[in-house]
Fold this protein.
Amino acid sequence: MAIRINGTDVAVPDDARVSLLDLLRERLHLTGSKVGCNQGACGACTILVDGERALSCLTLAVQMDGRSVTTIEGLGSAEDPHALQTAFIEHDGFQCGYCTPGQICAAAAMLREIEAGVPSYVTPDLTAPVLVSREEVRERMSGNLCRCGAHNGIVDAILQVAAERAA
Amino acid sequence: MNPVSYQRASSIDQAIQMAAGGRGRLLGGGTNLVDLMRKGVERPSSLVDVTTLSDAIEETSEGGLLIGAAARNSAVAAHLQIRSRYPMLARSILAGASAQIRNMATVGGNLMQRTRCLYFQDVAGARCNRRAPGSGCDAAGGFNRYHAIIGASPACIATHPSDMCVALAALDARIQVAGTRGARTIPIVDFHRLPGERPDLETEIEPGELIVAVEIPPPRFARSTYRKVRDRASYAFALVSVAAGLTVRAGRIEEIGIAFGGVAPKPWRAFKAETALRGGPATSQAFEAALADELADATPLPGNAFKIELAQRTLSAVLTELSGSDR
């Protein structure tokens, strides 16, 4: 009975009511993942489960037995930042920073979804390769709200990393 | 949240057994149930995790598809056959929620999700016949922009929130369920109930039953799509949505399927409009006249009367797009 969190096995809580977000923040003191709405409307708690983005506030920790969870702490550090973290700094992709860990976790998974050819609601042809565009990124990142309104910088940062990867 | 026990089911029979009796609830991705437990709307004493049951998407002998109830919404939308043969289904799923939620949510859970009516969710502050039968409905005289214009009752005017189910309705999907009294199949259009005097009874599923799979017949439309109109461009519930499939031959409509979301307590299959249009010309006048027929029994409220014209315009735009020469 263990959840692999940023490469370390953690015991599954006995109480089924504990959300993955509470396990991360209150018990493991991984406070990068944020409590925003706590009801699946804002994306501030976004983490990766087996590499795919998910909301830790609506995930019961007991359901994560045997799964691998990556939080912002597992994605990059001050000494060795993820390419998206560097790009967010360059493009002013945040102001207060509260939504940023969720934005970056979501963006990391989103770039892989595009690379895998997964379409979005705004993709014109569902079976053709996906072309990275501002419209695609805006649609795909709509689950992450930024109340400071840094969305333009966020999209710029993601587009830059996407372009670097394609090069 | 009240204390709750948790078990993971490893087979359909085990899930049925574990969920039998008491105040048990089947747990999929939890995107709706966990939220409602936190709000006090749902108070289960036990949770049976059914995400370990079949999530396979496979071809049926008749040329359709069978989707396991535990398939994630994102996996269904990304599936190549669904993208190429059932574009309205892929697009309907991609129009719903956010990528994070689609990764978590299961097909079975999507079918069983409950209304997003704010009065339904407000345990402390609002009366709701769906949540507490007989208590009254605060939505009727309240903020009802998101509520139903057709199929509602004096007891409840809430809408069904799913996008996926709207496409499933237009596609004539069949819901396979298993239970203590055996297996059966329920057509999607009969799966969700209209509220009548008992809005708390939402589906045809009986205690002791669970959804095993969704069966989709072979494609019957030359083209299909899903369009969702909402208060913001993305990540919002529908004001009006349309799933439509169309085959036009020599200017005449040979085959058509239409369903609406955001306007009724269940995915609203527009049988009357389909009948009016089948065999006739594919013109915008015909599209508009057919829907006027369909919505003749509508009972709009002050907050949502705009949905009648919005439904007409959205349907007309979608059918025009599908009958045009450009894809």
